Amino acid sequence: MKRITADEYRAMAELRYRIRLFLREGDAAARSAGLEPQQYLMLLAIRGLPNGNESTKIRFLADSLLIKHHSAVELVDRLEMRGLVRRTRDRQDRRQVLISLLPKGQRVLERVVQQRVGEVRAGGNQLIRAIDALLRKRPRR
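^ that's the sequence the OP posted. Answer follows.
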């Protein structure tokens, strides 16, 4: 096993800092739009579904946010009460509840994501450099 170099420690510290900064700024952007950070993440998970799916199951959302099923249900409850998402029953399996964005949820999410994309474009190179420093192969000794 190779020893970790000083450059790798520095790169790990920089990567950690950049990720934490990105997350903190995301929380602030969500709050400025009137959302709790977890609500923003739930809306993003719904909108960011693969293959253009317009709705998804609670289990998928819970897994996507790395939270328990009951926590995802509570989060969806709050978003539904605010008129940001809608619940419907799956046509094939009525036991499954599907969640989709409502227009109001789409508008709020759009505002936050526009800000976040701008932040990534402005400061993303520093994050890329930190990752790149860790991915570079060290010369063999």
